[in-house]
Protein: FAD-binding domain-containing protein
Amino acid sequence: MTLPRNTTVLIVGAGPTGLASALSLIHYGFKDFVIVDAVVEGDNSSRAIVVHAATLEALDMIGCGNELVSKGTKMTSVNFDTRTGALARLPFDSLEPYTRHPYALVIPQTFTEYVLGQKVANLGVTVHRPHKVVDMKVNTVDTDLADITFEDGQVVTTRYIIAADGARSTIRTIAGIGFVDPKDGLEHDSTTLVQLVPADVTFDNPKLNISNLSGVMSANTYFFSVPLPSTFNEYLSRKTGKFIEDRIVRIACGVPVGEGPVPQAPSKAYVQNLIDKFGPLYLSSDPSANPSGKGVCIKEVIWSSRVRTHSAIADTFFTRLPSGDSLKPAGAAILLVGDAAHIHSPVGGQGMNLGLRDAVFLGEVLAKHVKVTESKPLSEADQILTDFAAERRTRALEVIGFTKSLLSVGGTKDAVVAWWLPISKVTLRDWVLWMVGKVYYLRRRVMWNFSGLGRR
Structure:
C-alpha cells in the first residue's frame, strides 16, 4: 500500500492505543494524520481482558465507551480464596457514587482492538499495513519535520510522531530514549514471581459455574480465572472460521522460579498441571481432590503464552528528534503512549487501561498544541506537551508501584514474618485479605485503586 508523502501527525502502531489516539484526534477536530502498523492484522490472542471504570469514562469522552460495554461482560466483584476456602469478596458497587461504570468490563484486548478498528474505519480512516519503521531523521529542508523511512523504502514526512508501537518501540529506540525499571522506592523483593502463564481454555464440564473474577492465593503464587464474554466466541468464529461452542475461560497463574522456566507456548498438559497444583480444587482434574468427586479437565487451549512480570518506563514521554548537529535545532515532536512509554506486571489488569487513557487525553492536548503553534513560538507551545508528558509519566509511575505491590501480595513467600512474630507471611496475607473483605472502607479503597479513578 502506498503511503502519503506528508502528514502533520504520524501514528506508529495500530493496537488499541494507536487506534484510540486516532479516534481522539478526530473527536477533537483534527484529521491530518496517518496511522501505520507493522503487521498485516492484529493478533487474535486475547492478552489484556479488563477495561476499568476510569478507562471507560475516558472512552466515553470520544464516543467509544458504549460500544465496548455492549460487547463485554460487566464484572461486579473480585473474589479471593484459598484452595480450600473463601477469603474475601470485593464488590465494585462501592464505586457507584463516583462513576457510571461501577464494574470492570471483561473484554479481550484483541476484541477491543477490533471494535476500535471498526470505528476508525467507519470514520473513513485507513490503517496502512504492513509498514515497519526502520529509520527516522530530521528533514533537511525544515528542521521542525522528520522523515520516517519504512522497510519498503517509502518515506513519510511529519511534524509529530505518536509512538504506539509497543514495548520494543522502534521510535523510542531511534530517539535514544531510555527504558528501564524505576526501582527507587517501588521495588518489592518479597515476591518470587517473575513469570506468569495466561491461557484461554475451555473445560470438559459444560455445567461448570465460573463467574466474576476468582483468585486463589497460595504460598509463593496466585491463580485466577474469569469467563470471557460469549461475543468473543462469535468474534473468533468470524476471524478463524471455527466456532467454539463452550464458554472460554481466561486463566492466569504465577509460576514460582522454583518451578523452572515456562515454555514459550505452554501446552495443554502444562496448563492443566498448573491448575491442578495452584488452582481451585473444583477445577482439579484429580477426582480424589475435586470436591465434586469428578475431575474437570481442559478440553481445549485456545491460546497460551508466557509473560515476564518486569516493569520499565521511558525516561520521558515527550522529546524532539535529535538532529545530530549541535548547530541545528531538534526536529519533529515525539510522543510515547501505551507500552512504548511504560510496561509492568499484568496483575490488576492496568496496562492496556493506562495506555488507552494516555491516548484519549493526548488527542485533546495535541490538537491544542497544533492550534497554539499558529500564534506562539514553538518553545512556548511545547510547554503544553511537556506538562502533559510529565503528568502521564507520574500516572505511569503510580501504576507501576501499584502493580508491584499487587505482585508482592500474590507472590508472598512461605516464610515467617520475623523471629519476634513467628507467623507465616502467607497466613498474615490471607488474614489481611479477609479483613479487607469485611471492612467497607478497605474494600472501597482497594476497588478504587483497581478502577483507576484516582489516577486517570
